[in-house]
Fold this sequence. Notes:
- The chain starts with 9 loop residues before the first helix and ends with a helix.
- Helix 5 (79-111) packs antiparallel against helix 14.
- The longest helix has 41 residues, at 324-364.
- It is 74% helix and 0% strand.
- It is mainly α.
- It has 17 helices and no strands.
Amino acid sequence: MMEKELNGVDMLAFVVHGTVGIRLLTIPRDIVEIGSNNGWMSVALSAVIAFYLGFSFYWLYTKHPNLNISQIIEANLGKKIGKIIMVAIAIYIISTIGLSLRAFTDSVKMFLLDTTPRSVLVILGALPIVYGVSKGIKTLSIVLDLLLPLVILSTILLVVLASTSVDLENYRPVLHEGLMPVLKGSLQMVHPLLGIGIIGYIMPQFNEPKRVKKWIGIGVLISIGSYLAIVTLSILVFGSEETKMLIWPTISLSKAIQLETELFERAESLFMTMWIPIAFTTMVTFYYSSTLNLKVLFDSNRDHLITYGQIPLFILIAVLPNSVVDNYKYLGWVNLLAMFFAFIIIPLVIVITLFKNRRVSNEKT
Length: 365
């Protein structure tokens, strides 16, 4: 049986790092393209999606103790269909890692290392991701705990400093196109929020699972709060039309900081420096999930082979897009796959689990 190495509070860092990462740099544009100046409402509404996902993974574990989400899917959908779903999960996670790594290296190349070849940045970026997963869940948990304050402080610092440039008129008009764009905009949050699926893979490693529930809720609030603050600020500083034209709205926010001090003359470089470890932690959580999913898919415990065998795949995906525009397009496809898991597969597994539990109860009576 797997050794249970984690305590309840450790879940907080996993939830926040799994959902807040490189997508925070791009999500304002994605949401505002659909929700316009009401995009902040889309983020607020996505809290419902986040809580639904987080507590769904938690509830499924309580009904299938000591099984991770891939094992739960196989137990409920059968071996053949379960394996097919696991292949889809592998495609989704590895694509997310590769495209996130590409988005990260593009932003680093643009704002920090503009003369460094992109392929070199991709390879160098992949190394700490692989190293982090290879050290095991306990070490990974400690690193995430140490970096959690950086997520919160960097977001607060950016919001406080950039708030000097807000224009409240950019909020208007409110709901001028109705609620439908707001609802559609909230779906853009499914991809980053599905990073909360890390819960489904690490629950078996908590020594007191019942203590995890409140930390999932707190983690969701921190994640949604971070996205809400950045999207709202992007709208207030740039307006919805300009935000739609920005490649990296969050980095552009740091450039909009206007203080009479040389300390913040290149605020975007300071922000990127702070954001580098945060972006890596998100990819590490996805990579760890991918490793556990593949172990179930191939019925294998060969950790090293499965861990290192994925490296060529996500590096290839990272160098595949010809431009930032292509990368955005591919991320849009991945978001569709995320919605498939969030709104079809997870509810299906929940319904089957409820049906099985009711049948067992009826047989006992």
